[in-house]
Design a protein that fits this description.
It is built from nine helices and ten strands. By secondary structure, it is of the alpha/beta class. The strands form two sheets. The chain has an eight-stranded mixed beta sheet with strand order 1-2-4-3-5-10-6-9. The chain has a two-stranded antiparallel sheet with strand order 7-8. A hairpin with an 8-residue loop joins strand 1 and strand 2. Helix 2 packs parallel to helix 3 and helix 3 crosses helix 9.
Length: 304
Amino acid sequence: MDRFYPIGTPGEPWDAANKQEWFDAQTVQRSYNDEVLSKIEALDDSFEVFTYGALPLDPERYPLKAVKIESANDEAPWVLVTGGVHGYETSGVQGALGFLANDALAYRDRVNMLVLPCVSPWGYEVINRWNPNCHDPNRSFVANSPSEEAAAVMNLLGEVGVDFLMHVDLHETTDSDESEFRPALAARDGLASDPGLIPDGFYTVGDTENPQPEFQAAIIAGVEQVTHIAPADDAGQIIGSDVTQHGVIEYPFTELGLCAGVTSARFTTTTEVYPDSPNATPEICIAAQVATLRAGLDFALANS
């Protein structure tokens, strides 16, 4: 069943005027400065905080911040954590910040870390999946990226110039995916929009080309101590993809331009929590993201 979206003409891709109409309809609903930058600034001197870019829309309001922890151990591997690639996915941002504040230093003797807590700060403020130009940053980790947010991350990684052992990209799947973002995507591209199902619970997305099933299983086991894991539907799938093991599906990261495929790390995953579940709270979702990082780090370090 096709669903009406109030911008554009059904069956026709959006033109520049439609995209401007969409942008004009977005409103700031929370503060990047108060909820993200202030927490980064509150980190102690054990962390190196630096700016790796800014959004052209408003560079002073939307600086792009990275947090680095370098180990005194010359043999320590590097790990990358990204949150807020989709700015509306709150627990990814707050999970990365919570891990930095409460857990990261416990790993300092064994690992170097690069953490990008909020890749898409405008999306965070307006609570939207897209960037101001109607691009999905998490489909834009490609050459000549149309997303300033994705391009800034790729430029930073090129400048850092290290090999990563692990990359975890923190995400959510929300009811608004179905009520707003999938219909908007279909309207933008002039396609039909058919209803889908939102999985109730946590799951991970592994890379089809590098699935690392034991790594995914270790994360599921760690998160299962915090919140419930999404079951497969009647077709044995989660959001249209076959479940390869309890709570795990796979996507081709590089082919789809996903953030989790931006490095050549051995261990990679994308998390998905469900904040709209009657069995979850914002605090539980944040805790699930932190549990992911702890379980992933413990496994990666034990198996590197």
